[in-house]
Amino acid sequence: MSPFEIFFTGVGRAETAPQSRPPVAAGQVLVRTIRSLVSPGTELSFFEGTHIGLPDPKNTWAKYPFRPGYATIGEVVEVGAGVAAPKVGARIFFFGFHAHWNLLSTERVWLETPADLSDEKILLARLVQIAATGVELLRKKPQRAVVVGAGLIGLFAAQTLQARGCPWVAVQDVLPARLELARRNGISHTVLAEGSGLAAVQSVLGNSSADAIIEATGIAAMAKPALEMVQPSGDVVLLGIPRGEVTLNLYSLIVRKNVALIGAHEGMIPDRAPVGTTSRLSLVQEAFDGMRRGAIRTEGLVSGHVLPKDCQSFYEKISRDKAHWVTAVIDWD
User: Fold this and answer.
1) Pairwise CA distance, residues 95 & 123, whole Å
2) What is the pTM of this model?
3) For residue 122, what is the enclosing H or E element?
4) Candidates 1.10.3720.10, 3.40.50.720, 3.40.50.10330, 3.40.190.10; correct CATH number of 138-263?
5) How far apart are CA 58 and CA 52, in angstroms?
6) What 3-state DSSP class applies to 36?
7) pLDDT digit string (tens) for 231-269?
8) In this predicted model, what pLDDT tens digit does every residue of 79-111 receive, in sequence order?
9) CATH 3.40.50.720, the chain: domain bounds
10) Residue 118 contacts by C-beta under 8 Å, 6 or more apart in sequence?
11) String of b and e for 276-310 (b: at least 16 CB within 10 Å)?
């Protein structure tokens, strides 16, 4: 089959387009894709047309045709001048597109695939890394944390909180199937909500309050109840990309309570950094270590393996049936 790549050409439209083998410049490697992972957050927001950047003329990145892809495993087939590693033939994990060919700058995030982890776990580590951004940016280690949303990002944020020693973590969602997945993956406190707001999880907390709330649904209106519920000097982290706008009383919700409203876009953390400091690479390595220790679990989180030629079909499934389609691995070989 001739090489091709996946594009979103408009709302609800995923298509393939022929792809030529690109030339390799100095400092780059050319990778033939073996598997890639669908991100059910950002990718789905472009497929469904809900991404906040689409109508913004200043945001030139968030436009159709959009080239999706977050996590990729592939084989290095060519290296440019000055590249010492990876070598031709290496099997690597990196942040790539859904495409037969990927060009990778070696200054970006990449790792040779660890032999002791499955491809599914390796790919999911990319989403663990994104979720860990929300935990990394907290001002202090929480004692009671609430995660709003039991999708992949919310579930991994909750697991990261637990893995880093938070003694009490609860996850709230409106879908029972998502909460069952959370329990299967080690989250003890799961709360089923009806509609918006945090009344359900507050009933579990009783007279207590959370000192950290991570909003992982991307519903902008959830910021207000999160700020209302968090305890004084606590943190509210916007980990999901907010959709829509919200009006807040900054004095009563933030200033008077000394609360921090923190944006947790992964771009705030560098790809690489000196040893001992946080980078996206170090968060991926932390995810791998957590998986090896059983602190980060992935049971039932890949809903199926699909073929790239069926892109329209599987994006429709993930969009329509969020209770049962969490994510998918695309097999390119």
Assistant:
1) 9
2) 0.96
3) helix 119-136
4) 3.40.50.720
5) 12
6) strand
7) 999 999 999 988 888 999 999 999 999 999 999 999 999
8) 999 999 999 999 999 999 999 999 999 999 999
9) 138-263
10) none
11) eeebbbbbbebbbebbeeebbbbeebbbeebebee
- Write the class of the CATH domain 4-126+291-331: alpha beta
The number of residues making up the chain comes to 333
Q: Which residue has the tokens 């705030």?
A: 268
Residue with tokens 């393939």, as numbered in its chain: 16
pLDDT greater at residue 251 or residue 207: 251
> What's the maximum distance between 2 C-alpha atoms anywhere in the chain?
63
The total of other beta-carbon atoms located within 10 Å of residue 16's CB is 17
Can you tell me the distance from the alpha carbon of 93 to that of 61, in angstroms, rounded to the nearest whole number?
24
Q: Which parts of the chain fold into alpha helices (H)?
A: 42-48, 119-136, 152-163, 176-184, 199-205, 223-229, 250, 280-293, 311-320
**Which of these, 244, 127, 206, 140, lies nearest to 191 by C-alpha position?**
206
Q: Beta strands 71-79 and 13-18: pairing type?
A: unpaired
Backbone phi, then psi, for 257, in 5-degree steps? -95, -5
End-to-end CA distance of the chain: 10
Among residues 286, 234, 235, 232, the alpha carbon closest in space to that of 264 is found at 235
